[in-house]
Amino acid sequence: MAKRQGGTGAMMVTGLARQGSRLACWLPVGVALGIAAYFALPEEPPWWLCVAIMGGVAVGLALLVGSRWVVAVTERAARWQLLGCCVGSAVCALGMGFLLAFAQARRQPPMPLLPLESMVVEGRLAALEPVIGRHVEGGASWRVTIKGAVFRSPWWEGMAPLSRSLVITLPAKDIPVVEHMNPGEAVRVRALLRAPMAPSWPGGYDGQRAAWFSGRAGTGTALSPVERVDDAQADRGRWGAIRGQVARQIEHYLPGQVGAIAAAVLCGETGLISTQTRQDYAASGLAHLLAVAGLHLGFVMGFVFVLLRRGMSLSQRLSAHWPCREIALVASLGAGVAYVLLTGCHIPGLRALGMAGLGVVAFLLGRRVISLRGLALVALALEVASPVVVLDVSFQMSFAAVMALIAGYEPLRGVLARLGGYGARPVGRSWGQRPPWWRRMAVGVVMLVITSLLAGLATLPLSMAYFGAFQPWFVLANILAVPLMGLWVMPAGLIALALMPLGLSAVALRVMGWGIEVISWLARHVAVMPFASWPVPSFPAWDVGLFLLGLAVLCLWRGMARFCGLGMIGVALVLVWVVPRPVMVITTLEHALAVRQEGEMRLVEGRLGMPLVRQEVQRALGWQARGVGVPFCQAGICRVPLKAGQVILWRMLEGADEVLQPQQSQLCAHVALEVNVREQKPLCMAAQHVSIEDIKREGSWAVYDDGRGGVRFISARMWQGERLWVGPMGFHGVPPLPFAKAE
């Protein structure tokens, strides 16, 4: 037995030693796990736990430093030294991630209570942007972000400015009033304010957590046009103003959805893209073309690099005396920085810019340009700067795609070199002669297919988890659309950006628009192909984490053990189909009650008018809505059959007490749960109850069938736990005070 244990230990140490510098890539993974552990807690950790974790980090750091300084004289000592380094690093990473998330949550300003009545709000204009996917009569809705807001009311006289921002939605008719305003100007608007949105079902999107970490106090709807108060202290916000000017010029020359896509690609304005366009691009697997990320940044930097490199090579003096390649590379990085600033500094763009900056520095120093260690360094920097970014879908998808691309191309580098003719020297051709054009084109096509497969397969489960759809035709669509974007749309768009200050961008924008029309035509036709988009149920958060951990093992580990990551990915994809789904969801928003029967979502009470609420309820129940109606209802009583019992949904009707009183014993037979979504007294006293008071106090509810004649239910408040960002349920602001007689 001892010999067997020694052999296992030796194999483990050998596997760790084989990783070499690759072990450093696991540091951001450990930090991410520590961050996830903080957010998974049911309540805020006590101070003693944080102190204990700090002690664990100190012990891990001491173990790491001590094992590095100790000189191993025997094989056994070397084994313990390596294990000490790994254990110390793991403890430090996990503890650091937990403490970073704890510190970020504690640094946020407190959440204010907003007034319930309409209020005149004054503050500084911080941003003006369209609302993504929301269109009303007369055009798209827009929203203004106001910082340092105060409420102009006698009851709020002398209040300190809010430390959090307010996001107020404007109708399209009010946009001409504010489109010429600059960030920093003092503005006034009357609006009806709302607190951050609680989860529409236990496990759904947590708007309160998002608002807590993004610095928002709440949202609102404008009831009057925005007025300028003064602009003496206006901060012009150069990049925001430039972004608005670019978007207006694009809209002038390219109206409609073509201009909306062009604005999204060139300046990051995605709000004018219609819901139908988004659905077409999503169903065809081309949704990533609408969001500025590494693909677009690569096109920008590649175009600038080739243009400058070819231009300088035309001068014999420059080619002989100047490092043209290095100059072009640094200039392309500068163009990339300007592009990321212009498009709003989103997470995918920042990740790609960090990778590009590391690649440029590595090239100038003669090191490998793209590596997993560079990706790990960028990920660690983002995690330290904002730990909550680990929960962001764009962060997860962008790093999953790049990690899969780097790891996937490592074993294929030699094969692609031989395919392109850069391997062994062919007979009759010198070393300096370039391979034939058809071989270079073949390599480009093969790399395009491989890139689409690697990035698509790495992000496909995440797309299924967050957007509830599976697109099997994404490879075909990307093989055709990505070259069009890189060789047609982006070069024309960059030329248009360069000519805009001169007022000569019309021709370039129209050429860009033709390319966008071709890509949109492709997206529409791929979207209507058979099985273009299959609805899939929602993924629990732990299932997404299991998939990402399996992907990290597959991409980062060296040796045969890396294929354990495939097993973890397979388990994550299988478990999503067997995880229990609620048979009923009761939402506080829109006052909706929906049930799942025979694979269909049926609405019993209320309405699902808000797209976000409808989407979340469909994901909760596991399927998209195939039929909406009232199931199994007679005389105001709706029965939902379970596996070994019934759930009664009682809808209070006029005179229902007299009608139901003689049938009460018969109606209450085999009742597991009674739900009262209105002010009404219980019908079945022996059953479990969810009343309107429970909904007001605990928020939304999800009811599960336990298969044994009973039910299990959980509320949004139970799922969220006692966290800093969870506000009191059923109390959405400061109630209005009574009017005086003079009013």
TrEMBL record:
Record field: transmembrane: 21-40, 46-70, 82-103, 286-308, 320-342, 372-391, 441-467, 473-499, 511-533, 539-556, 563-580
Keywords, sorted A to Z: Cell membrane, Membrane, Transmembrane, Transmembrane helix
Membrane topology: Multi-pass membrane protein
Coiled-coil positions: none
Location relative to the cell: Cell membrane
Main localization category: membrane
Top-level division of the source organism's lineage: Bacteria
Domain ComEC/Rec2-related protein: start-end pairs: 266-559
Pfam families in the record: Competence
Protein name: ComEC family competence protein
